[in-house]
């Protein structure tokens, strides 16, 4: 199982946001993995089973999603920075998305 997973929900429509490209980057900005949200808005395999402790980012390309739905958006890209700590076995990082706001949290 991947150490990092994510789930994107369109809060304005009340459902999953599919076909959003997601990149996992290390602190230097090097790309470690890529994925695309499925019909349920999930990327269940994003990167390796383990990562060194440190800072990482998930980058969500949301502009194409909003363009497909015909919705103007203020945020063409959403970047979430987080820290991987020694001994943690899984990080689920959901994104709650709307055209003019977003929020995130550490899921389970």
Automatic annotation (TrEMBL):
Gene3D superfamilies cross-referenced by the UniProt entry: Transthyretin/hydroxyisourate hydrolase domain (2.60.40.180)
Annotated ranges, domain Transthyretin/hydroxyisourate hydrolase: 4-107
EC id: 3.5.2.17
Domain of life from the UniProt record: Bacteria
InterPro entries according to UniProt: Hydroxyisourate_hydrolase, Thyroxine_BS, Transthyretin/HIU_hydrolase, Transthyretin/HIU_hydrolase_d, Transthyretin/HIU_hydrolase_sf
Signal sequence range: none
SUPFAM superfamilies given in the database record: Transthyretin (synonym: prealbumin) (SSF49472)
Keyword tags: Hydrolase, Purine metabolism
Catalytic activity of the protein: 5-hydroxyisourate + H2O = 5-hydroxy-2-oxo-4-ureido-2,5-dihydro-1H-imidazole-5-carboxylate + H(+)
Any one GO molecular-function label of the UniProt entry: hydroxyisourate hydrolase activity
Family per record: Belongs to the transthyretin family. 5-hydroxyisourate hydrolase subfamily.
Annotated NCBIfam families: hdxy_isourate (TIGR02962)
Protein function: Catalyzes the hydrolysis of 5-hydroxyisourate (HIU) to 2-oxo-4-hydroxy-4-carboxy-5-ureidoimidazoline (OHCU).
Subunit-level organization: Homotetramer.
Name of the protein: 5-hydroxyisourate hydrolase
Natural source organism: Leucobacter albus
Lineage summary: Bacteria, Bacillati, Actinomycetota, Actinomycetes, Micrococcales
């Amino acid at each position: 199982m991947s150490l990092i997973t994510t789930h994107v929900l369109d809060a304005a429509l009340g459902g999953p946001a599919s076909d959003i490209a997601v990149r996992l980057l290390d602190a230097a900005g090097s790309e470690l993995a890529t994925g695309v949200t499925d019909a349920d808005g999930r990327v269940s395999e994003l990167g390796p089973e383990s990562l060194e402790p440190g800072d990482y980012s998930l980058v969500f390309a949301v502009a194409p999603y909003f363009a497909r739905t015909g919705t103007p958006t203020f945020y063409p890209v959403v970047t979430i920075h987080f820290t991987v700590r020694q001994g943690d076995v899984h990080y689920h990082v959901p994104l709650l998305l709307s055209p003019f706001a977003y929020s995130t949290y550490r899921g389970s």
